[in-house]
Amino acid sequence: MKKIAVLTSGGDSPGMNAAVRAVVRKAIYHDIEVYGVYQGYQGLINNNIKEMDRGSVGDKIQRGGTFLQSARCPEFKDPEVRKKGIQNLQQMGIEGLVVVGGDGSYRGAQRLNEEGIKTIGIPGTIDNDINGTDFTIGFDTALNTIIEVVDKIRDTASSHERTFIIEVMGRDAGDLALWSALAGGAETVLIPEHKKDVQEIADKIQQGIERGKKHSIIIVAEGVMSGDHCSEELKKYINVDTRVSVLGHMQRGGSPSGMDRVLASRFGAYAVNLLMAGESGYAVGIQNNKLTKTKFEDIFSSHHEIDEDMYRLTNELSI
Ligand code: ATP
């Protein structure tokens, strides 16, 4: 393979730049021409494709977001629209494409692979909700961002003897909520994968108050309910002073953590290795600290699951 391209798609995540840098540098190291597609699949259709040199990815490894930019492009589901993107790549002699993104981006990559462009996916999302990998790029950074906030909120919560409800990202997956609850020492975590009775949460807070506890922290994933809704529900059962913090998009920003930079660099280089070996239709991942590849169809065949042992542990340690 002589020419490849790379794009970032879907929601951005810290570490995407490090992945693009690795793809570009690894390709150049092996004398492969490498192109950056700006604005995801939208840029592919619009022919927003530029050749990268080693300097194009200089001073990027530490930056959050994605310098290639990302875009939602629902029309990419239409085969006629994809044809335009494929033609743009083929006219430039580009045979392989690395797609950094989430589940939706993988679906686009799978279609491209079936339609003549060799593709490899790299998991880039803060949600950690992609099958075939223990971790996605951006999860560790987002987790650390949340923990920093939880620690700060804990200071003010105990000074005023308040119950704080912190709403974090996670529509379908509770990984960010669960990991931040365990790492932040929260009293309660609400995740989409497990139903929890509000009365039960209120009873727990009450028992804590009776034991002399100065504050309570509840972490709720946005997919369960909003922080405000959680507060209203709680007030039906217990008379406590509650405050709500919605972390929102700050969770997606920031300089990537060391773990995310290393993960992204390993993924990017591995993706190029696979394309050089003539392999395609795979997403790369990490399982038990070993790089792995999983066929796109196997990624879609089941739903991402929460770590049940960790859920149990979080509940056991927050008594
Ligand atoms: P995240 O969930 O972290 O935001 P994602 O990659 O799942 O990331 P989506 O918005 O679901 O984000 O998908 C990104 C893009 O992938 C879409 O805008 C669209 O261009 C393309 N895409 C999604 N689903 C398909 C599909 N079934 N066929 C072709 N392309 C698709």
From TrEMBL:
<dbReference type="InterPro" id="IPR000023">
    <property type="entry name" value="Phosphofructokinase_dom"/>
</dbReference>
<keyword id="KW-0460">Magnesium</keyword>
<feature type="binding site">
    <location>
        <begin position="72"/>
        <end position="73"/>
    </location>
    <ligand>
        <name>ATP</name>
    </ligand>
</feature>
<dbReference type="InterPro" id="IPR035966">
    <property type="entry name" value="PKF_sf"/>
</dbReference>
<comment type="similarity">
    <text>Belongs to the phosphofructokinase type A (PFKA) family. ATP-dependent PFK group I subfamily. Prokaryotic clade 'B1' sub-subfamily.</text>
</comment>
<dbReference type="GO" id="GO:0016208">
    <property type="term" value="F:AMP binding"/>
</dbReference>
<dbReference type="InterPro" id="IPR015912">
    <property type="entry name" value="Phosphofructokinase_CS"/>
</dbReference>
<dbReference type="GO" id="GO:0006002">
    <property type="term" value="P:fructose 6-phosphate metabolic process"/>
</dbReference>
<keyword id="KW-0021">Allosteric enzyme</keyword>
<feature type="binding site">
    <location>
        <begin position="21"/>
        <end position="25"/>
    </location>
    <ligand>
        <name>ADP</name>
    </ligand>
</feature>
<keyword id="KW-0324">Glycolysis</keyword>
<dbReference type="GO" id="GO:0070095">
    <property type="term" value="F:fructose-6-phosphate binding"/>
</dbReference>
<dbReference type="GO" id="GO:0005524">
    <property type="term" value="F:ATP binding"/>
</dbReference>
<dbReference type="InterPro" id="IPR022953">
    <property type="entry name" value="ATP_PFK"/>
</dbReference>
<feature type="active site" description="Proton acceptor">
    <location>
        <position position="127"/>
    </location>
</feature>
<dbReference type="GO" id="GO:0042802">
    <property type="term" value="F:identical protein binding"/>
</dbReference>
<dbReference type="GO" id="GO:0003872">
    <property type="term" value="F:6-phosphofructokinase activity"/>
</dbReference>
<protein>
    <recommendedName>
        <fullName>ATP-dependent 6-phosphofructokinase</fullName>
        <ecNumber>2.7.1.11</ecNumber>
    </recommendedName>
</protein>
<feature type="binding site">
    <location>
        <position position="243"/>
    </location>
    <ligand>
        <name>substrate</name>
    </ligand>
</feature>
<feature type="binding site">
    <location>
        <begin position="102"/>
        <end position="105"/>
    </location>
    <ligand>
        <name>ATP</name>
    </ligand>
</feature>
<keyword id="KW-0418">Kinase</keyword>
<feature type="binding site" description="in other chain">
    <location>
        <position position="154"/>
    </location>
    <ligand>
        <name>ADP</name>
    </ligand>
</feature>
<dbReference type="InterPro" id="IPR012828">
    <property type="entry name" value="PFKA_ATP_prok"/>
</dbReference>
<feature type="binding site" description="in other chain">
    <location>
        <position position="211"/>
    </location>
    <ligand>
        <name>ADP</name>
    </ligand>
</feature>
<keyword id="KW-0963">Cytoplasm</keyword>
<feature type="binding site" description="in other chain">
    <location>
        <begin position="249"/>
        <end position="252"/>
    </location>
    <ligand>
        <name>substrate</name>
    </ligand>
</feature>
<dbReference type="Pfam" id="PF00365">
    <property type="entry name" value="PFK"/>
</dbReference>
<dbReference type="InterPro" id="IPR012003">
    <property type="entry name" value="ATP_PFK_prok-type"/>
</dbReference>
<comment type="function">
    <text>Catalyzes the phosphorylation of D-fructose 6-phosphate to fructose 1,6-bisphosphate by ATP, the first committing step of glycolysis.</text>
</comment>
<dbReference type="GO" id="GO:0046872">
    <property type="term" value="F:metal ion binding"/>
</dbReference>
<keyword id="KW-0479">Metal-binding</keyword>
<dbReference type="GO" id="GO:0030388">
    <property type="term" value="P:fructose 1,6-bisphosphate metabolic process"/>
</dbReference>
<feature type="binding site" description="in other chain">
    <location>
        <begin position="213"/>
        <end position="215"/>
    </location>
    <ligand>
        <name>ADP</name>
    </ligand>
</feature>
<feature type="binding site">
    <location>
        <position position="11"/>
    </location>
    <ligand>
        <name>ATP</name>
    </ligand>
</feature>
<feature type="binding site" description="in other chain">
    <location>
        <begin position="125"/>
        <end position="127"/>
    </location>
    <ligand>
        <name>substrate</name>
    </ligand>
</feature>
<feature type="binding site" description="in other chain">
    <location>
        <begin position="169"/>
        <end position="171"/>
    </location>
    <ligand>
        <name>substrate</name>
    </ligand>
</feature>
<dbReference type="GO" id="GO:0048029">
    <property type="term" value="F:monosaccharide binding"/>
</dbReference>
<comment type="pathway">
    <text>Carbohydrate degradation; glycolysis; D-glyceraldehyde 3-phosphate and glycerone phosphate from D-glucose: step 3/4.</text>
</comment>
<dbReference type="GO" id="GO:0005945">
    <property type="term" value="C:6-phosphofructokinase complex"/>
</dbReference>
<comment type="subunit">
    <text>Homotetramer.</text>
</comment>
<keyword id="KW-0547">Nucleotide-binding</keyword>
<dbReference type="GO" id="GO:0061621">
    <property type="term" value="P:canonical glycolysis"/>
</dbReference>
